[in-house]
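Submission checklist for the structure archive. All mandatory fields must be present; incomplete records are returned to the submitter.

[x] Identifier: Helix-turn-helix domain-containing protein
[x] Organism: Thiothrix caldifontis
[x] Residue count: 350
[x] Sequence attached
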Amino acid sequence: MLPADLMISNNPMQTLATLLIGFSVFSALLLALTHFRYKNYQGHTLAQAMGIILLLTLSSLQLAHFAYLQNTVDVIHSPYYAVLLFAVAPAFYLFSKPLLQPFSVTSPRQLLHLLPILLAPLLPYTLALPLAFAVGTGYLLWLARSLYALRAQRSRFQLELMLLGGVFVIAIAVLILGLSLPLLTEKWFFSLYASAIGCAFLLTQLVLNVTPQLSTDVSEAAAETYAVSTLNNVNCDAALAELEACMQEEELFRRPDLDLPTLAAHIGLSSHQLSELINTRLGKGFSRYVREFRVEAAEDMLQEEPSASVLSVGMSVGFTSQSTFYEAFRELTGMTPGQFRKIHALSAPQ
């Protein structure tokens, strides 16, 4: 049991925190099973692994908050909690760095980011908490600089950048909260901290519901931001015409294994050249470019072949599973394939 002076009656803030804690844990499990699948992080194994570790860390923090707020077990004042607290910032950094700075080289020196985690159990509670938030400030500045570097892409990736900006705002709020610790009771502090984590999960789920391919799109935008132009000796108009012919006439998008190197080789460009061509001339990334062709073809099939199953339609236009088909279709049309078919069946002339 906790000391008597820590036991207070429930209040609205504590109730809200409890609800957001439950949402956080459920959301973390859902993200681990859906968003962090390999297909969303091809070529970004480190980001995928650190993303899952970040989810595990935040979930563990939230469970510790729940136990504390419900007066069951006091994990907050233990070395275990300090380790979790110090793990959040480096885990987020190692997760987002390969996506926001795709040309950066992974080196053993990055293991130094784990050093504070090793020291955390040795620190007294009164020092560990403010120091963890101070360490987080450095990572917050890095995130701000990375977001600023993507400013040229904001017209194409407004929603994705809004998510990162929202995370940035929540991180600032948590930092201010950490500095305000001496002015708050522990119950209020951890209620607010748990609520902030819950809001971050809520924001993430809202954006991923609209843009399931978030990690891929942001990575492609970042790659374009940092890349040196490779199109100086390329006839861009001719290359675009050939690209459109490959997609519209040859319908290469129907190939489930179609990737950037394959399509680039088909029209005589390098992967970097094709990626830059699509980004600069069409204002989108390669993945979205292909998804748009597939969804457009699926729309035609759903109307012209009413007896075909939704799964068969998705597979025939190049998607590899029903889930990826549903995600892409809903992202681009705002509805599921079944809803699209029903609406157009009702509006079709009898």
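[x] Structure attached
Curator remark: The chain has a mean pLDDT of 82. Residues 183 and 273 are 56 Å apart (CA to CA).
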